[in-house]
Each structure stands twice: as structure tokens, then as C-alpha cells.
């Protein structure tokens, strides 16, 4: 009886902590940027700590930071992000900016990981009267596939939103004309929240 209770407790905890999470749109154009740096009349504003739940855990696990950036070109010439202007840390070391598709693939949820809920399929609910089993209901046939399917759909839907936004705000190779402001989402390999600045070439 104790083993059954422990098993049910484990299942309940796992169900509550391992569910798929939704994706909250970042919307770089509406962010209140606090971190700012300016180089040769080109202003960089940026913000870390954009993701939550499963996506934030993936950031931590994979050592990848998703950063929202806003670049305002107040110089007298047009510039292209990634060619004429690059990101560096405060110490001057250049930052490798990941391709946005790779950022998505690195940080996305894995819908297939929720298939383990199918292990609940054989679970039965027993009722007893006067110490004698009176009935058995195969609740696992509903619970297992229901949790697996529901979480896979939720993860797939969240991933679709995440991918759409990450690709929409792909700033790599974007031309920023003089007087223009552009927004982007970039992925960098980092375990910390280091200061960023632009290097104009």
C-alpha cells in the first residue's frame, strides 16, 4: 500500500512539474530597454532574460542566451549588422552570433519527451468494499494518452510561436539605413549576462 501511495505521489509531482509550457511573445519593439551603449553614433540597446519556464531552463542547460536588441543608426552612413557592425563584450572580444534557426532548434521544447506519459496507460483504479475488490477501472487508458497528447500539442504550439518570432526578428545581414532603428532577437553562447557593445568596421 505504501509503495502504491509513493508511486501515485511521484506521478502527481511529475505531472505538475513536467508539463509543456506556453510561449509568451517577446515583442522586441515594445520592450523597455535598460542596457545601452553607443559607438560612433550607432546606439545599441539590449535586454537579456526574455524567456520563462521550459525555454528559460533550456537557455541555462544549453549555455545559450536569447537577447533582444535595438539598434539606432544616427551616423551618416548605412550599416549592415554582421558586416559593418558586430557585437562585442565590454572587454572587446567579439561575440559569435548564432543563426536564428539554430537558436530555435537549441532552445525549443521537445514534444516527443512527453511520450513517457504513455507509461501511465496500464494504470487501473480499484474500489474495494469490506476488504474485497469490487471493481477495476482502466483510467490509464484516458490519463496516459490524454497527458501525452495534450502536452505534445501544447509544446508544438508554443514552439511554433517561438520559431515564428525568432525568425521574424532575425537581424543578421539586415541593412540599417542612417536615421533608422531596427530590432532583433539574437542568440549568443554565454553562461552570464555580460555587457554588450557594438564594433563599427
Give the strand content. 25-35%
Strand order of the largest sheet: 1-2-3-10-6
Low-confidence stretches: 1-10
Share of residues in helices: 25-40%
Q: How many DSSP-defined strands? A: 11
Structurally, the number of domains stands at 1
The secondary-structure element order is: HEEHEEEEHEEHEEE
Q: What form results from the Cα inertia axes?
A: elongated
Radius of gyration: 24 Å
Mean pLDDT score: 82
Report how far apart the termini are.
Answer: 71 Å
| Helix-strand makeup class | alpha+beta
How would you characterize the largest beta sheet? Answer: 5 strands, antiparallel
What's the total helix number? 4
Signal peptide: 1-20
Keywords: Signal
Protein name: Lipoprotein
Organism: Mariniflexile litorale
Describe the structure.
This protein is α+β, with helices and mostly antiparallel strands. The chain has one domain (50-200). It has helices at residues 2-17, 53-62, 100-107, 140-168; strands at 35-39, 42-47, 64-73, 79-80, 85-89, 97-98, 125-129, 132-137, 175-176, 181-189, 196-200. A 5-stranded antiparallel beta sheet has the order 1-2-3-10-6. Strand 7 (125-129) and strand 8 (132-137) form a beta hairpin. Helix 3 packs antiparallel against helix 4 (140-168). The chain is elongated and about 90 Å long. The N and C termini lie far apart (71 Å). Mean pLDDT is 82; it is low at 1-10. This is Lipoprotein.
